[in-house]
Amino acid sequence: MGPIPDMMRAVVAEGSGGPEVLRIIERPVPRPGEGEILVRIEAAGVNRPDVLQRQGGYAPPPGASDVLGLEFSGEVVATGPNVHRFRVDAPVMALVSGGGYAEYAIVHESNALPIPAGLSMEEAGAVPETFFTVWTNVFERGRLRRGETLLVHGGTSGIGTTAIQLARAFGATVIATAGTADKCDACTDLGADVAVNYREADFVAAVKEATDGRGADVILDMVGGDYIPRNHEVAAQDGRIVQIAFLQGSKVEVDFRRLMLKRLTHTGSTLRPRSVAEKAGIARALEEKVWPLLAQGRCKPVMDSTFDFDDVAKAHARMDGGEHIGKIVLRL
Amino acid sequence: MGPIPDMMRAVVAEGSGGPEVLRIIERPVPRPGEGEILVRIEAAGVNRPDVLQRQGGYAPPPGASDVLGLEFSGEVVATGPNVHRFRVDAPVMALVSGGGYAEYAIVHESNALPIPAGLSMEEAGAVPETFFTVWTNVFERGRLRRGETLLVHGGTSGIGTTAIQLARAFGATVIATAGTADKCDACTDLGADVAVNYREADFVAAVKEATDGRGADVILDMVGGDYIPRNHEVAAQDGRIVQIAFLQGSKVEVDFRRLMLKRLTHTGSTLRPRSVAEKAGIARALEEKVWPLLAQGRCKPVMDSTFDFDDVAKAHARMDGGEHIGKIVLRL
Predict the structure, then answer these.
(1) Which chain B residues are closer than 8 Å to A267 by Cβ?
(2) pLDDT score, position A19
(3) B-chain residues within 8 Å CB-CB of A264?
(4) Which of A35, B90, B139, B231 has its CA 20 to 30 A from that of B107?
């Protein structure tokens, strides 16, 4: 490792559109401020919000970098004032609100985490976004408890594969939906008790059957559209529905009488605009509850494919195609 | 007080329709079973669900009496096996899933409560339904905290007047909506910081103005219809909307993107079908947290009018008319 250069390569979207709008440009290497660390990135995860941002549908929150990328792994190469936990050379993974598709990035040390034993740098770069998202939505917001049933849509997405493993590890029954027989097999291989091919079966009927008519206690949904009233229908009494995206639209007619009579809780959240302090709270909970599971190999990021940094457009095309199972990662 | 008779007078709806379908009939006096007390009723509260039941829109839950009435006050006149708390002659108020419009009723002793000092029997008969409803929905389900803002629709209803007082007593800012200037005055007299006449002002704009654009942290809604998207609009970041009825319909188109981006929680509940054990849990919380406030006069049921038992049809006509402010009670 040589000295820290002044300039680095980074990916932005020039205009909006398909993977062809992605450009690798030169940017100054950022300097760590109060409480921040500078990381030389080794792997950067590709996530659905990156695709939405590229398509022009998801502007970075105020103050965030316009460089794509919400998570990475790498080594600390410099620290700002009042950094207490991580030193130069420490391997870390981190969640950021932008700037991950680059050779270097800064992050507040509270939003970085050590890399558990047994995880490669590529795997570590694929962890933060989905693990933070699943923890805060399924376990904190959705309050999933041992013995309950989780229904997770998009079971083979990065979010889905993480939700299946964590829910199983914490003693829940897991039902996943996916769009092909192969994807359904991937879900059950990861620990899902039931996988429903939504192209061939009505997930409402399938979940009711699998739960003796009770329904699902927690539903993690990124589909929206007509899934919203169907989620209300398939939720158990006192069920919680957590909305994290709307791949099929967010505007829909619902009869809220069912929500009242079944005492449902419909909520949702997005991770990116949350404050450093809020993300630090999620990081602490993950390190306490989930990092031991990663270290023991009881859960791990499901890796779909790795692309060279120069092939970032190919990585996005892979996600656009929807054939992937698990995480897509850029290698630097 | 003489011996307990075999038969009693009680009110049922013969068919469904206006107040004229109410009939005072003869019924056997019920006998207290395991853990139950028999109460000679002195006052019975009239509630909106009684009107809905009379209109044919709200059948009693399985196992509940077809005699109208969800709350009453009176004196214990007999006890079943394994009753530990209340003895014959004890004055009590109670929440029931039916049977309140009658000379006698049975209730599990865990769903009865002592009458705080300073409350008349008529006032006591007007307490349970609204206090149980407000406690479980605003404080338990909605998690209203000191310093937060509650928006309560229907501020002069039994529920509304109770919610205004309790929210103020627990340190929240309260904004109420009501349909006339007099009703708005009644809301502020009870402690509401702001009252919005919904016929003259848009409550969304009024609440935003009153909260410097923040919105309401908890919204208690019994209106539904187009109030649902407007509640989503006026809710603060991390706001909770609790739905307890739908006076204007429950089917509506909503853009759930706002729910996700603001991390709202939309939930709701009904009290009547809940188990004796669940109602007992609410009763314990009320006795601990709210009964001292009633005893100190820091809150009390707002009494609209009292009708003789024989005038039950007039009492319902008063509620149908919508002119009332606070509770309507039958006196036995």
Answers:
(1) 259, 263-266
(2) 97
(3) 267-268
(4) B139
- Say if B2 falls within a structural domain: no
Q: Which of B141, B246, B259 sits opposite A268 (nearest CB)?
A: B259
Helices A203-210 and A227-234: crossing angle in degrees, nearest 10, is: 20
Q: Which residues contact A276 (CB under 8 A, 6 or more apart)?
A: A108, A110, A111
Read off the CATH number of the domain in which A187 is found: 3.40.50.720
Percentage of chain A beyond pLDDT 90 is 96
Q: If interface means Cβ-Cβ distance under 8 Å, which residues of chain B face chain A?
A: 141, 224, 228, 243-246, 250-257, 259-261, 263-270
B252·A254 Cβ contact <8 A = yes
User: What is the tally of structural domains in chain B?
Assistant: 2
Q: What element of type H or E holds A330? A: strand A327-331
User: Measured in whole angstroms, how far is the alpha carbon of residue A329 from the centre of its chain?
Assistant: 13
Question: DSSP characters for B114-125?
Answer: EPPTT--HHHHH
Question: Quick one: pLDDT band at residue B59, thresholds 50, 70, 90?
Answer: confident
| Contact indicator for A302, A164 with CB cutoff of 8 Å | no
For the entire predicted model, the pTM comes to 0.94
Q: Please write the tens of the pLDDT for every residue from B258-273.
A: 999 999 999 999 999 9
Given a cut of 90, is residue A3 above it in pLDDT? Answer: no
More confident residue, B308 or A322: B308
Residues A78, A138: one domain? no
Query: What's phi and psi for A157, nearest 5 deg?
Result: -70, 170
Pairs across A and B, CB distance < 8 A: 88
Chain A residues in contact with B266 (beta carbon < 8 A): 256, 259, 265-267
Facing B270 at nearest CB: one of A244, A246, A260 = A260
In Å, how far are A50, A186, B25, B54, B128 from B22, measured between CA atoms? 63, 61, 10, 7, 23
Is the residue at B215 inside a domain? yes
Distance from C-alpha of A144 to C-alpha of A308, rounded to nearest angstrom: 37
- Whether A1 maps to a domain, the answer reads no
Residues of B in contact with A228 (CB under 8 A): 256
User: What are the tens digits of pLDDT across the range A233-259?
Assistant: 999 999 999 999 999 999 999 999 999
The percentage of residues in chain B with a pLDDT greater than 70, rounded to a whole number, is 99
Q: By the 8 A CB rule, do A72 and A100 touch?
A: yes
For residue B1, is it within any domain? no
Could you tell me if B135 and B110 lie in one domain? no
Q: Are B138 and B263 found together in one domain?
A: yes
pLDDT surpassing 80 at residue A2: no
CATH code of A120's domain: 3.90.180.10
- Determine the structural domain holding residue A135 and report its residue range: 131-268
Does residue B319 share a domain with residue B219? no
Domain endpoint, select from A214, A241, A268: A268
Considering the domain architecture, whether residues B31 and B72 belong to the same structural domain is answered as yes
The domain boundary, picked from A268, A300, A323, lies at A268
Out of B243, B252, B256, the one facing A260 most closely (by C-beta) is: B243
Q: Are residues A141 and A236 in the same domain?
A: yes
Nearest-CA distance B183 → chain A (Å): 27
Question: Is A228 close to B263, i.e. CB distance below 8 A?
Answer: no
- Note the pLDDT tens digit of each residue in A27-76: 999 999 999 999 999 999 999 999 999 999 888 888 899 999 999 999 99
Nearest beta carbon to residue B253 from set A251, A266, A270 = A251
The average pLDDT across A315-331 equals 95
Residue A102, strand partner residues: A10
Distance from CA of A247 to the nearest CA of B (A): 11
Q: Tell me if A269 and B263 make a contact (CB, 8 A cut-off).
A: yes
Question: What's the ipTM?
Answer: 0.94
